[in-house]
Amino acid sequence: MAEGAGLVRMSGIGKRYGGVRACRDVDFSLGAGEVHALLGENGAGKSTLMRILSGDVTDYDGTIEINGAPVHFGGPTDAQAAGIAMIHQELDLVPGLSVADNIFLGRELRTKLKTVDRRRMEREAGALLERSGVRLDPRRPVGELRVGEQQLVTIAKAISLDARVLVMDEPTSALTTSEVERLFDVIRELRRSGVGIVYISHRMEEIAQVADRATVLRNGRIVTSFDPRRLSTAEVVEAMVGRPVQTMFTTPDADTGDELLRVDNLALKARRPRPGRRDPEGISLTVRSGEIVGLAGLLGAGRTELLETLYGVAPAGTVTGRILLQGKEIRPRRPRQALAHGIGFVPEDRRASGLVLFHSILANTVVSSLPSYGRLGVIARRMERAASVRMADRLRLKFGRLQDDVGTLSGGNQQKVVFGRMLLTEPKLLLLDEPTRGVDVGAKAEIYRLLGELAGQGLGVLLASSELPELIGVCDRVVVLRDGRDVASFSTADSGEGDLLAAAMGEGAVFEEVGGAQ
Amino acid sequence: MRSLKIPLAAAAVAALVLAGCGTTSERTSDTPAAGESKACEGADGKYTIGMSQANVAEPYRQRMDDDIRAAAKEVPQFDVKFADAAQDNAKQVADVENYITQQIDLLIISPNEAKPLTAVVKKAYDKGIPVIVLDRKVEGDAYTGFIGGDNVQIGSEAGKYVAEKLLPQGGNVVELKGLAGATPQAERHQGFVDAIKANPKITIVAEASGDWLREKGQAQMDALLKGNPKIDVVYAHNDPMAEGAYLAAKAVGREKEMKFLGIDALPIPSGGIKAVEQGRLSATFTYPTNGKEAIAAAKRILVDCGTIDKSQILPTRLIDASNAAKIYAEENPAT
Amino acid sequence: MTDVQDKPATQVERSAGSVVATLFRFQSVFGLLAVFVAAIIFSPRKDGEILFISADNLANVVRAVSEIGIIAVGMTFVILIGGIDLSVGAVLGLAAVGSAVLMVESDWGFLPSVLLVLVIGLVFGALQGVATAMIGIQSFIVTLAGLQIARGLARIWSGGQGVAISYGDGPNEAPESFAILGERTFGGLVPIPVLIFAVVAIAAVVFLRVSAFSRHLYAVGGNEKAARLSGVPVVRVKIAVFAICGLLAALAGIVHAVQLNQGSPNDGIGYELDAIAAVVIGGTSLMGGRGSVAGTVAGALLLGVLNNILALNNIDSNIQLLIKGLVIVAAAALQRLRPAT
Fold first, then answer.
1. Which residue in B156, B213, B203 sits closest to B182, CA to CA?
2. Among the four given CATH numbers 1.10.150, 1.20.120, 1.10.3470, 1.25.40, the one describing domain C57-336
3. What ipTM goes with this model?
4. pLDDT tier at A248, thresholds 50, 70, 90
């Protein structure tokens, strides 16, 4: 590897946002053909540093050199011209345009007549996607794709720019394990061709796999740089959060109670089926009170769709099978009904479907439980404030003032607000869809702690996740879905990630027929 | 600081206001006596007159303002301000209120509609401001004088002209009416219908509403031409509709078969007099803008300390090929 | 920064941006103040008296904006949920015609007439809400259609022409009690329409402050999907908001009829745009979820003061349009500068 070739050298970088110092005197370098991992909790300054590098933030202290020549980008276009491409965590795709159109947005291929050469764009987009390890029809509108698929499209787009420096911000957060593997192949190939890659991730095992070097940021400063293959996960986490972390996962005691939820052969036939959606086609499972049940499966296995059906937000259609809550048959048709039954839901994409980012923490926390803070539709401000403060305390929310916009919080704290909102409705059953996606390690640990606590209080939890360690670590039991059906159920006490993966992929795995609880 | 932008914006607005406004008048006036005309200072006085127009977008009303402006130029004591209500009664009420605040010496108003403007005109009049009402009346008698045309009479003149001059042997007439619900529309129709009764051989074979608009008149005429194989005269309630009808007939090559009659006879290049002169219309009838007369009346009140008639109806004139060029020249004296 | 790692749920120092944020929040109020001061400076004077701040003129200013103001309050609700209501001017016309026809031609009493007209506005708005919330047609299109329908209804009901209102006990006369709505009170100083506007504005401000409904409304406008998932009755909120807007447009129509002593099917043409302008100047985002009625009221008053001072200086009506256009653009531009979160 071309270690000596200093592709990027950032020195003494500093940046203030009002009273907050997002970066303080940061030195960061990247060699050609190097994969440099950047770690840190949300709000540690990783994103700011990379936004400076990609020309998104133009007013900062310190200097940047590319190939030894000092530069100062006036905007993202300058950075792109210098060969720096960034894959944002927030997917910047145009939903109404096709995959191919998105990949070539702003630099559309032309025919000799200067018209858009759609056919060539589609062909090349297909090839690019293939390289990134996805099989997708380049003509499909991006809005129809699942979040994970969209993420792969942004990666393909970044690769197509022929960048010398590629910044990947949490590229795998919505990918399945096999897709992650293919992405790593792509990264290795890019590295061989001399591309420098900055790899931001919360997933320690990934970093150990692909990174040559890792740097940890905390509170805007560099805490340590190390060889990721040498340091243990615990040590890295400690460096990130600034205190020792005993265990990531709070092992729940299997002290579960009566049956809370029973789903019997649940199926939904949507009146107008949407492409890429896998509605339940016969799912049976149970959740006892105090039990955390995981939902595993590949992308498109129907995890989200099952949760949505239970919460009453699935598309209109014919529902067959039964949903029993504490023995009583229910059929929620809208979230209000589900909430009234005691079912809460934390959606997958908190920014798009969880929060009003420019509304206050207070407003976002209490919105589901408003009628309980007053009478006759009049809100008693003191009561809602008290509830909000109580919830913030319980969730150990890190915030300035309750009136601050929720968008100013870090990802993990935003997620806590969505949690808090649901908990204020005092649910019996909590449906969680990828609750730790894009959440930093510290907040993750706290969410796990909270889940354990809730289960201890007798709540039932149904947790859909793509992170196998999470499922194994947090859940009492994991139900594996494939193609809209439940195909296996494991007790986490005596199975591992491999079992789950095998069942999810259906590759020569032994199909266990599991009836109800074990 | 970002917060500076607000005062900056305000200053910008203020600057615009400043740039737009002339010097404010500095006159002293006696306290008005309630009811009738105040403050006649004779030829030595300086007078601000407020002209509240219903809708300048109509050529007839634009001409009215122009006539007032031209006539006022001849009276050195007068300074006339103009406001346009853009066809909005509420806006015209506010316009008059603002004139009252400015303590003008005389109000000329051409009301958009009678009823909605009555109260505010009375308010001005009760404050001692002489009010000259043009074209359309207000209700009651809380104004100094009304100057206008007589639409019934105009319709009647048009009817007589058709019955006696154009179709003494009888024939088929098509009527293109103004906007439904407008008083002039009803009056121009009534006068016409009554007058052509004198010749029982004339029939009105069709009528349609052209809403005073040229393009609407054209569209209505398109349809009427298809349904009526024999049309001898087209009587339109204003010149633009008559012109529209002419275009429709010309499009199917039938413009020579029939005569076109309009009303208003505005002495402007796009007006009815020119259309008669150029042979598209057979005749049109003047509907005076009264601008000149209004300033004359204002002069009598303010400068001559005299009184004016409560109602002054100006007669209409027939414009046809024989006098069109001459009258156009008279109305637009070379300056 | 203070160390917050181990002190969850404690307060961190106030961010420096909040002062600027506050300024922006009350942008329209400051704008109103600025325009007001400018109006005093540029006001014509007579015998040393500043004509603009004479009590009578100020009453005129507010009276002139009262109808637009009432509509704009309703419009604020609609825009807060990310919608738009283009039908308000036409509903105003329909209500003005309704008031006149019921009282003059049908000889109805004051209260039944007013109530029926208000109910018509409410139902009309609610139906538009149903079309946009339940069928899912964009509110722009629904209310564009609603505009045509309301105008058509007004034309049919009035027979195509203005219905004049005269007062008395006889047949074809409106009850004297109706006329009171157009008069002035408090020593002939405060026009009743201004009082109605004030009551509507204050009620709306209070309502948005204390009601659970208003939280739902802001949530729907801020992120409809999140609101639905949070259990907010999105459909109900939308229908209610359009109903409120229709109701207030009808109320403005009644005020319009009494002030002009007439109900005409052509009343209120273009008022929707003035109302939208007031809302935008008031700092409410057309994207929804952000804004306030207080801002709208300030925006409406700002437009009123601007109209007044331009008229008092006899600025050419065409130039007036230019200046008003620039003010709207300036207000919108200021919003773009709002500190991002």
1. B213
2. 1.10.3470
3. 0.84
4. low
